[in-house]
Specification:
By secondary structure, the chain is of the alpha+beta class. The chain has a single domain, classed as Aminohydrolase, N-terminal nucleophile (Ntn) domain (Glutamine Phosphoribosylpyrophosphate, subunit 1, domain 1), CATH 3.60.20. The protein is built from seven helices and 14 strands. The chain has a five-stranded antiparallel sheet, with helices on one face. It has a five-stranded antiparallel sheet with strand order 6-7-9-10-11. It has a four-stranded antiparallel sheet with strand order 5-4-1-8. The protein is globular and about 75 Å long.
């Protein structure tokens, strides 16, 4: 019952280290195929940050799950998105949530946003042994800084390196395509609604070119997980709101595609 460290990970390491993912020993050889989470995007807006993730998990060339959730509240003022080995990533998120809750209970105050980002970095570093065997976890972390009064985004590498990103970022297999969309669509002065549209469009582009990223599925009513973090706290958008955004983007892109086909058809007729 001794309170001890304000770090839950340190508390667990002292009392039962076998419960920590980093303490597990794996047999020699390569790890068996496991479901992987793919694309997570985040963007800042005036007064906060938005994070979004697609719903597809893959195992090799197969779709392992169509409705996996990859964006979670870390605490009241921050969010974490997962990419990499899905099972370990979900366990890391639960442990991170406990880490922040434990600190708040022991210290009687919230950990600073930089402190949260550093704690997550330490936990990823502890997973390096598993990452070397192919079971890597690379999250994206974002939150509202109660001191600076703005949203901030942090990315990581498998060694636990922590990097603050400006304006927007993406991780996962579709991140290259999503990042291109974010560069074109993001602009200073966006409000929350505008930032939501930007990240959803980025997921559209990622799904268009990356087979491991799942786009919105209107038939099954599967939409991305999208959450904003602001002074009001963590807020996940409802499916009906996302359906409206997706429908608007789909209609606009359909009009553009039809216009392009019509124009190319007219050019072909002139050549003949």
């Amino acid at each position: 019952m001794t309170p001890g460290s304000s770090s839950f990970v340190e508390f667990l390491a002292a009392h039962d280290p076998s419960l920590l993912p980093s303490s597990r020993t794996l047999p020699s050889g390569s790890a068996p195929p496991a479901p992987h989470g793919t694309t997570i995007v985040a963007a800042s807006f005036d007064g906060g940050v938005v994070m979004a993730g697609d719903r597809r998990a893959t195992a090799g060339s197969m779709i392992a799950h169509r409705e996996i959730e990859k964006v979670f509240p870390a605490d009241e003022y921050s969010a974490v998105g997962i990419a990499g080995t899905a099972g370990l990533a979900l366990e890391l998120v639960r442990l991170f949530q406990l880490e922040l809750e434990h600190y708040e209970k022991i210290e009687g105050t919230l950990l600073s946003l930089d402190g949260k980002a550093n704690r997550l970095s330490t936990m990823i570093r502890g997973n390096l042994g598993l990452a070397m065997q192919g079971l890597a976890v690379v999250p994206l972390f974002a939150g509202f800084d109660l001191v600076a009064r703005r949203g901030r985004i942090f990315s990581y590498d498998v060694t636990g390196g922590r990097y603050e990103e400006l304006d927007h970022h993406s991780v996962g297999s579709g991140s290259v395509f999503a990042r291109g969309a974010l560069k074109k669509l993001w602009r200073p002065g966006l409000d929350a609604q505008g930032a939501v549209r930007v990240v959803v469009e980025a997921l559209f582009d990622a799904a268009d070119d990356d087979s491991a990223t799942g786009g919105p599925d209107a038939v099954r009513q599967i939409w991305p997980v999208v959450a904003t973090v602001s002074e009001a706290g963590y807020l996940r958008l409802a499916d009906d709101e996302l359906e409206s955004v997706v429908d608007d983007i789909s209609l606009e892109r359909t009009r553009q595609a039809r216009s392009s086909r019509t124009r190319h058809g007219s050019l072909g007729g002139d050549l003949r």
